[in-house]
Design a protein that fits this description.
The chain is of the alpha+beta class. It has a single domain (about 10-20, about 35-205), classed as FAS1 domain (Roll), CATH 2.30.180. It is built from six helices and seven strands, in the order ααααβααββββββ. It has helices spanning about 10-20, 40-45, 50-60, 65, 80-95, 110-115; strands at about 70-75, 120-125, 135-140, 150-155, 165-175, 195-205, 210-215. Strands 2-1-7-6-5-4-3 form a seven-stranded mixed beta sheet. A hairpin with a 4-residue loop joins β6 and β7 (about 210-215). α3 (about 50-60) packs across α6 (about 110-115). The longest helix has 19 residues, at about 80-95. The radius of gyration is 18 Å and the shape is globular.
């Protein structure tokens, strides 16, 4: 009989097996997986190359102490950061009509980095055992944002049905206005008003200072969904 797994180590094992295809084994130790790491959240991120761009953004924004506070942090990998920088570079190149411009993470204004990085930080420790399928709405460390909140919940997936009945993955959703899943006809919601939800490929890493969840590679930094210009 297949079992239902919703604990950290199983989700991590499954996510880690996918992530290893990209050679990003940042939490795949080959033995019994322990959610505890004997490092601060910042030091843990800094020790893993897959978060190098994210750490650079944290440093430039001066948010190391906040990242190491009593918070839950949803981390974006280099894939999401690089996609955002690439988009901004193409848009800038079109604006100035110069395909050879230099645009890097350092080109992003510090104030924008400071405010936007806080979108991924939530006061207190929100771990898997604190989550439900229904989920709960939170304000990020940015504070109250008009018409925007963040939904943190578990989502049941049957993607691994050859091995288990289902896996509960952690999901972070930027809710614009009301929750799409509570609308009578979600298909009628305008595109620019649709909620933006992303699964975590790893969840429930317990550092010495807080809780860390890692968003999947489909998430572009700052929840940006603007089409990439050709």
């Amino acid at each position: 009989m297949k079992k239902i797994f919703n604990q950290y180590f199983v989700v991590l094992l499954l996510a880690g097996s996918l992530f290893s295809c990209k050679k990003d084994n940042y939490k795949n130790d080959g033995g019994k997986l322990d959610p505890h790491v004997n490092m601060t959240t910042y030091d843990y991120l800094a020790s893993k190359p897959v978060f190098s761009q994210l750490v650079h953004a944290i440093d430039r924004a001066g948010l190391k102490d906040m990242v190491n506070g009593d918070i839950t942090f949803f981390a974006t990998t280099n894939y999401g950061v690089d996609e955002y920088v690439m988009l901004k570079k193409r848009l800038k190149a079109i604006e100035v009509n110069d395909e050879n411009i230099t645009y890097t993470l350092d080109s992003i204004p510090v104030k924008l980095l400071q405010d936007s990085m806080k979108l991924y930080m939530f006061q207190g420790k929100i771990n898997r055992e604190d989550m439900t399928y229904q989920g709960k709405l939170y304000n990020s460390m940015v504070g109250a944002i008009p018409n925007v909140q963040f939904l943190i919940n578990l989502r049941k997936t049957f993607a691994y049905s050859d091995y288990v009945d289902h896996v509960d993955v952690v999901t972070l959703t930027k809710v614009i206005g009301s929750r799409d899943d509570q609308e009578l006809d979600p298909d009628q919601i305008p595109q620019d008003q649709k909620d933006l939800g992303f699964d975590c490929q790893t969840s429930g890493i317990i550092t010495t200072t807080g809780i860390l969840h890692v968003l999947n590679g489909y998430h572009r930094l700052f929840f940006n969904t603007q089409p990439m210009p050709q």
